[in-house]
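Sample intake sheet
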Amino acid sequence: SRRLYATEAESAAAGGTGKLTVSFMLPHEAIVKKEKVSQVNLSAVSGDLGILADHVPTVEQLKPGVIEIIKEGSSSQKWF
């Protein structure tokens, strides 16, 4: 398996749409399943993160807080 750069990986995974494909799962249900979104905001130990399409891969320890999924335009959904 060959490791791709973020732009290549996103283009291959999303068909070049410039969107981030997100799945947000709980043990008993899928809240968001393979949905293309503009941005995901969440809290990590190192600070708040805003994840966009073509982001640089990173490993972070998440902390309790609000997860915000921003869809097309300015509509968003938040969970704690």
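Comment: Helices lie at 6-14. Residues 11 and 17 are 7 Å apart (CA to CA).
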